Amino acid sequence: MTSTTDGHLAADLDERRAGTSTPRFVAGKVGGALASLVLVVVLGFLLFRMIPGDPVATMTRDRPTSPEQLALLRERLGVDKPMWQQFLDYFGGLFQGDLGTSYMYSRPVADMIGERLGPTLLLVGTATVLAVLLGMWLGIRAAWKRDSAFDRVQTGVALTLWSVPQFWLGLLLLIATQGLFPSRGMRSPDVPEGFVAQSLDVAWHLTLPCVTLLAVIYAQYMLVMRSSLLEEMGSEYLTTARAKGLRDDLVRRRHAVPNALLPAVTLVFLQFGMVVSGTITVEAVFSWPGLGLLTYEALRGPDLPLLQGVFLVLAGSVIVMNLLAELLYRVLDPRVRAS
Amino acid sequence: MSPLLELRDLGVTYATGDGEVRAVRDVNLTLEPGETLGIAGESGSGKSTVALSVLRLLPRTARVSGEILLDGEDVTGMRWGRLRAVRWSSASVVFQGAMHALNPVRKVGEQIAEPIRLHTSLAEPKVAARVAELLEQVDLPPAKARSYPHELSGGQKQRVMIAMALACEPGLILADEPTTALDVVVQAQVLTLLSGLVAERGIGLVMITHDLSVLAATCARIAVMYRGEIVEQGPGSEVMGRPRHEHTRALAAAFPTVGDPVSRFAPATANPLPPEPAREEPDADAPGLLAARDLRVTFRDRDGRAVPAVAGVDLDVRRDEIVALVGQSGSGKTTLARTLLGLQRPTGGSVLYDGSLVPTSSAGLKEYRRQVQLVLQDPASALNPRHTVYEAVAEGPRIHGLPGDERELVLEALESAELRPAETYLARLPHELSGGQRQRVVIAGALALRPSVLVADEPVASLDASVRGEILGLLLRLRRELGLAALVITHDLGLAWNIADRVAVMYRGQLVEVGSVEQVLLEPRHEYTKSLLAALPMGTASAFERGV
Amino acid sequence: MTSPAWQRRRTAAGQLWREFRTNRGGLIGLGVLVAIVVLAVLAPLITDEGGLDVITATGSPLEPPSGEYWLGTDVDGRSVLLLTFWGARVSLLVGFAATILSVFIGTLVGIVAAHFRGWPSAVLLRITDFFLVLPSLVLAIALSSVLTKGIWTIVLAVGVTSWPATARLVRAQTLTIESRPYIERATALGGGHGHIIGKHVLPAVLPLVLANTTLVVGSSIIAESTLSFLGLGDPTVVSWGSMLQTALSSGSVTAGAWWYLLPPGLAIVVIVLSFTLVGRALETVLNPRLKAGR
């Protein structure tokens, strides 16, 4: 869903480079992120109240229900109160970690999300770390040997993978490796107790979802790293470095890459939204018991409080990652750090 | 003993999409140890290509022919390992450090230490000591080693570049435009430093620049390049004093000596200037056509502190006169110009046109702008690359809905700007024109509105030397023929000497000295004006009076 | 003076085409796209729509590819080839419509945010940043889950969630253009907002918007397939995403029916890749910043 290709990043980053003093900067960014979080809460709240029809009617549409039961349900869910009252209740509840109650499962949404957080973090974390390493390494090599066979092949592969819907790649891998890896879940039921055995089992389950997620996001990182390094390669300070008598690989390692890494590393954080989007479909395909699968399940209902909760958590985490990226960039780039 | 550097029949061709381009041909140069040689030329003359070819730093598309002998050894035939060993230890380069020649994310100390570690086996503690020593030699405190390039001023960065070049005690230093983009005073300091260090150590120096006056101050011998060839070569005084090639003459004329009566009201132009018309003796007390009264502009910096850019300026530009506003970058002269044009709102004081306040409403401003027009520094970016000359010149008349035949107006404006025959320029795009022609189009665009005042912000600063005189001649001619008043903003005192009637010297947002050109430039009263004149590489007015 | 201007535009277009032609990837992408669009438009003429009906389907469920069904059949016994063929219409329609919506909003917001000073532009920028950070798929899921299911809901969901990237690009480009001295010159000549935007900013921004548009079409098609795959699409229309959804939910994938899985997925990859290649080629030709790096 992210249509920012590598070419556009430069302008964005130039903008980020214009700096202010550190306390003001941090205060500004944190304040902005907080405002965004509040906006997400408001947006989430309004969005899921927009639904035409009565949520209670939707919930009970397959069961015969008496009007008394409906009224009771309404009161319990709080949908009989005026909109602003509902919002205040909801907003107040957030501070106590209360995200409402799931229509379908009649359980606190916060608990359900809490259970699913771990698996998602494991999947996203593993895939991101691997994708960053692979993407950066390939991107640096491709840019340095620009227009070589290596560059053309790598860029071609990355562009192709970038055009692949993640869920389809997952399905394809499922069929292609039929039986080699488990097709669903995170654990097998019959694995003996013990950390090693359990970990191996999880890793075995993790392989396919992780590869699927990795394949698409590394491509983005590679393209970003490649174009970032290409931007740097025309720089005059590289001529200075060459004039000093540095070997080509030292010019690259000491001068070009550190400069190119700055924007690229930051973009890793900025692209986190893309990873989150990918998680939803990949988890749905492999029934990986994380937030993505929870979203998928909530869509079946649709279970609005659950959807709203997941929306809040996913969007919120992206905002936090984005804040980290802004702060990290400031730490990494001396030009912005000083003022 | 073989010479330090010898170029034999050096030729460089670049492979481009449209075939081969010969950037340099048949260049023969010799430099003995300890000698200083200056190479002068305009942009595109091939002078930088010559410098870069010595260490084989040219891009891969370049093909080099001939021989480049460094200490008697041919650089073109060296293996990579040998070449890397020679780079920086035998010959180092001072790039235009004020710009991007330093790595922005590494401390300057590390960058100076890098070649030392690479080419010597100095122990690590001694490397740090050496860096400190080098910084002291270029008059920088050793603590600056821990700074990043962006924390240094342009002059400091250039000093770092020089310290870096000295790091491995090379026999030869190539300096490529080492003082371009620096202010006059800083430029003088850097040049003195560089020539001092080179002379002390007996290092050979090749200095490349477009500014002939810089070479005159630092180099024993001068070579002038034009279109890839050396057109004139000889001792500095000879080349400067009695230039034989016409191109050298154009270059020399571009940097006139302040105080030299020959260049007063005589910019180097091929077309003869009209005689001075009879002018009324200006009434010194009457307000000017365009006037600033206690004008103030204050900006807020990132932390909200007030930074005064223009701090109480009174200035008059009268009918039929050219006023030069002189100052260094950061003195507030451009802000003043923008405020006079209504492009920047003043925070205090007022701008008067023909005795009445300049309106702030958008309709009123639009009307005002018919009278006062702007000419910008870089004509390459002052024209929309997608618009033809016709569209560029017609833009003003269209905006204002001027009566009369549009085509006639455009042709007339182009004629006034000396683009003849005007018809041939109409359909051309800016990139098809030379720098001087583009600036004429910008001027024509302003003239099309028939203004009474031109405000020109560094109108020749980004033009090649040979074009400079022509544009200045045009401004002077417009004043003499049409009575067009002008405020010319410049850092170049020679320009003021060439065309201006009066000079205003701006320093830290204030006018420290205003008066006739002769008065201010020949008998400066304010210390700042004196330091500006003292920094002129060609010598000052007083030096001129003493010497010639 | 219309005739020289027109002539110049034609020369510029010719120049663009000549440069574009040297980019092999872009040329191949363009060829594939033209072919696919023509086929999709002609689908009702060259195929029988009746084959899409579950009731009148002639094959048996999940037949492997054969002489009769080149790409096999789906769970309902319909020809996968025919489904893929017709799916292109929906995917392209949604892709283009969502892109028009997205690019329109993005360009408008981008130019306004960059050109005007003061608080309205600050607010616009803040909103753009907010939506840019928000994972657009999550937002699109939320939107399409609360609206009535249908093609236009998908178009709306994709369109109103994917504009910030365009807005950001257009804003950056507008800022670049407006920092050029010729804008100052135009102001000094007396030009107002309309003049600056109409004569200087728009002509310079539009080519990049065009390149960006091709890229947005690609990502919109992927977004459509993802939403359909998650069961948020129009259940009455066949699209590539909905085919894949049926393939998973009906157990065909675990049953090893690769012929049901490959065609729609490959179709998405080919079409998105083509759009991406064309977009990148256009970008290279049109973006002076990238061209200078060559």
TrEMBL record, chain A:
<feature type="domain" description="ABC transmembrane type-1">
    <location>
        <begin position="117"/>
        <end position="325"/>
    </location>
</feature>
<feature type="transmembrane region" description="Helical">
    <location>
        <begin position="26"/>
        <end position="51"/>
    </location>
</feature>
<dbReference type="Pfam" id="PF00528">
    <property type="entry name" value="BPD_transp_1"/>
</dbReference>
<feature type="transmembrane region" description="Helical">
    <location>
        <begin position="202"/>
        <end position="224"/>
    </location>
</feature>
<protein>
    <submittedName>
        <fullName>ABC transporter permease</fullName>
    </submittedName>
</protein>
<dbReference type="GO" id="GO:0005886">
    <property type="term" value="C:plasma membrane"/>
</dbReference>
<dbReference type="InterPro" id="IPR035906">
    <property type="entry name" value="MetI-like_sf"/>
</dbReference>
<comment type="similarity">
    <text>Belongs to the binding-protein-dependent transport system permease family.</text>
</comment>
<dbReference type="InterPro" id="IPR000515">
    <property type="entry name" value="MetI-like"/>
</dbReference>
<keyword id="KW-0812">Transmembrane</keyword>
<dbReference type="Pfam" id="PF19300">
    <property type="entry name" value="BPD_transp_1_N"/>
</dbReference>
<feature type="transmembrane region" description="Helical">
    <location>
        <begin position="156"/>
        <end position="182"/>
    </location>
</feature>
<dbReference type="InterPro" id="IPR045621">
    <property type="entry name" value="BPD_transp_1_N"/>
</dbReference>
<feature type="transmembrane region" description="Helical">
    <location>
        <begin position="260"/>
        <end position="286"/>
    </location>
</feature>
<dbReference type="GO" id="GO:0055085">
    <property type="term" value="P:transmembrane transport"/>
</dbReference>
TrEMBL record, chain B:
<dbReference type="InterPro" id="IPR003439">
    <property type="entry name" value="ABC_transporter-like_ATP-bd"/>
</dbReference>
<comment type="similarity">
    <text>Belongs to the ABC transporter superfamily.</text>
</comment>
<keyword id="KW-0067">ATP-binding</keyword>
<dbReference type="Pfam" id="PF08352">
    <property type="entry name" value="oligo_HPY"/>
</dbReference>
<protein>
    <submittedName>
        <fullName>ABC transporter ATP-binding protein</fullName>
    </submittedName>
</protein>
<dbReference type="GO" id="GO:0016887">
    <property type="term" value="F:ATP hydrolysis activity"/>
</dbReference>
<keyword id="KW-0472">Membrane</keyword>
<keyword id="KW-0547">Nucleotide-binding</keyword>
<feature type="domain" description="ABC transporter">
    <location>
        <begin position="7"/>
        <end position="252"/>
    </location>
</feature>
<dbReference type="GO" id="GO:0005886">
    <property type="term" value="C:plasma membrane"/>
</dbReference>
<dbReference type="InterPro" id="IPR017871">
    <property type="entry name" value="ABC_transporter-like_CS"/>
</dbReference>
<dbReference type="GO" id="GO:0005524">
    <property type="term" value="F:ATP binding"/>
</dbReference>
<feature type="region of interest" description="Disordered">
    <location>
        <begin position="267"/>
        <end position="286"/>
    </location>
</feature>
<dbReference type="GO" id="GO:0015833">
    <property type="term" value="P:peptide transport"/>
</dbReference>
<dbReference type="InterPro" id="IPR027417">
    <property type="entry name" value="P-loop_NTPase"/>
</dbReference>
UniProtKB/TrEMBL annotation, chain C:
<dbReference type="GO" id="GO:0055085">
    <property type="term" value="P:transmembrane transport"/>
</dbReference>
<feature type="transmembrane region" description="Helical">
    <location>
        <begin position="123"/>
        <end position="144"/>
    </location>
</feature>
<dbReference type="GO" id="GO:0005886">
    <property type="term" value="C:plasma membrane"/>
</dbReference>
<comment type="similarity">
    <text>Belongs to the binding-protein-dependent transport system permease family.</text>
</comment>
<dbReference type="InterPro" id="IPR035906">
    <property type="entry name" value="MetI-like_sf"/>
</dbReference>
<feature type="domain" description="ABC transmembrane type-1">
    <location>
        <begin position="88"/>
        <end position="279"/>
    </location>
</feature>
<feature type="transmembrane region" description="Helical">
    <location>
        <begin position="150"/>
        <end position="170"/>
    </location>
</feature>
<feature type="transmembrane region" description="Helical">
    <location>
        <begin position="27"/>
        <end position="46"/>
    </location>
</feature>
<keyword id="KW-1133">Transmembrane helix</keyword>
<feature type="transmembrane region" description="Helical">
    <location>
        <begin position="257"/>
        <end position="282"/>
    </location>
</feature>
<dbReference type="InterPro" id="IPR025966">
    <property type="entry name" value="OppC_N"/>
</dbReference>
<protein>
    <submittedName>
        <fullName>ABC transporter permease</fullName>
    </submittedName>
</protein>
<dbReference type="Pfam" id="PF12911">
    <property type="entry name" value="OppC_N"/>
</dbReference>
<dbReference type="InterPro" id="IPR000515">
    <property type="entry name" value="MetI-like"/>
</dbReference>
<keyword id="KW-0813">Transport</keyword>
